[in-house]
């Protein structure tokens, strides 16, 4: 998973390194370095890449479900919610300039 099993790790049970944690470790370990990337970090990157490839179809499915949900909200006339980009139709009499805009 992206963030790992937090319920197990909170109980001090051994859990595999989460994808996000693995990537953060890679970035932090080599952030200010000018040396060649060590093999351990390269190996860790390979593992992260494999894990991400496994998660990607699930993430794409979640994205599709979310877009469908957002479209359903829009179609139902639901009020705007954070993170949802609303449709903003132009009014028929509008020439693209708001009557309240500063036209100097």
State the main characteristics.
104 residues; mainly alpha; 51% helix
Total beta strand runs: 0
Largest sheet: none
Strand proportion: under 5%
Shape: elongated
Mean pLDDT: 85
The N- to C-terminal Cα distance equals 55 Å
- Helix/sheet category: mainly alpha
Radius of gyration: 23 Å
Task: Give the % helix.
Answer: 40-55%
Uncertain stretches of 5 or more adjacent residues: none
Secondary structure: elements and pairs:
Blueprint: H1 6-9, H2 19-30, H3 39-75
Provide a compact summary of the structure:
Helix content is about 50%, strand content about 0%. It is mainly alpha-helical and about 100 residues long.
Question: How would you describe what is shown here?
Answer:
It is a single chain. The chain has three helices and no strands. It is elongated. It is mainly α and about 100 residues long. It starts with 5 loop residues before the first helix and ends in a 29-residue tail after the last helix. α2 packs across α3.
């Amino acid at each position: 998973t992206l963030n790992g099993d937090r319920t197990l790790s909170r109980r001090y049970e051994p859990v595999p390194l989460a994808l996000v944690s693995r990537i953060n470790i890679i970035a932090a370990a080599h952030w200010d370095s000018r040396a060649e990337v060590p093999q351990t970090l390269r190996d860790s990157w390979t593992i992260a890449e494999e894990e991400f490839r496994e998660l990607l179809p699930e993430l794409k499915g979640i994205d599709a479900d979310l877009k469908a949900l957002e479209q359903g909200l829009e179609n139902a006339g639901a009020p705007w919610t954070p993170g949802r980009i609303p449709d903003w139709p132009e009014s028929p009499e509008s020439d693209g300039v708001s009557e309240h805009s500063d036209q100097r």
